[in-house]
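Example 9 (inverse folding). The structure is encoded as follows.
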């Protein structure tokens, strides 16, 4: 049994997780409500039982945007079950799921089949969303040459520039919600295809 499968029983249900949230709860619940589950999602996720174990923290912006999407998926499609672990309480598990650059980002979506065998994981956010964020950051900074240090890495930008960029990207990301929901569902569906392949 994998470590992810072992931790499943310790993990919170979505309602338990929401009940203990100290940050972003209102936005998190709003994002659950606005997530649209489409007919194609039933085709992708409604055939075989699936378990999605999420590693997250409530302060994380990506988690506030993307975790509600899988919660809504489980609410709508009875073959999907979601459980949630706080990353900081399960660092040993989180350490197994790092981005390609080695950074341990959240959220992490670990997909398990009906026998709790791990099928794969999606880390942080869909890669297409990451690429779009990078492009929008470049576009915004090019459009605002009055902001100092825009050519530096984010953590080395002056505070004024960091805050302006953060505020813009936050509002811009919210406008991408429906499209990025599709990205997440498509990427998770790609992971789950191995279930149908084994069952065939």
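The amino acid assigned to each position is listed next.
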């Amino acid at each position: 049994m994998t470590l992810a499968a072992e931790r499943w029983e310790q993990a919170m249900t979505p309602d338990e997780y929401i009940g203990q949230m100290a940050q972003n709860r209102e936005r998190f619940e709003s994002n659950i409500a606005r997530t649209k589950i489409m007919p194609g999602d039933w085709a992708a996720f409604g055939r075989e039982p699936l378990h999605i174990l999420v590693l997250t923290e409530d302060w994380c912006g990506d988690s506030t945007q993307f975790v509600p999407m899988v919660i809504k998926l489980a609410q709508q499609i009875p073959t999907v079950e979601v459980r949630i672990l706080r990353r900081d309480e399960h660092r040993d598990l989180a350490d197994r799921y790092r981005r390609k650059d080695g950074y341990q980002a959240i959220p992490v979506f670990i997909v398990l089949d009906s026998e709790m065998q791990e099928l794969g994981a999606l880390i942080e956010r869909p890669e297409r969303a990451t690429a779009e964020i990078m492009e929008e950051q470049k576009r915004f900074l090019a459009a605002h040459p009055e902001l100092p240090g825009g050519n530096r890495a984010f953590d080395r930008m002056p505070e004024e520039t960091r805050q302006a960029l953060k505020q813009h990207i936050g509002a811009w990301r919210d406008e991408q919600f429906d499209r990025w929901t599709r990205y997440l569902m498509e990427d998770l569906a790609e992971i789950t295809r191995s279930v149908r392949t084994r069952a065939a």
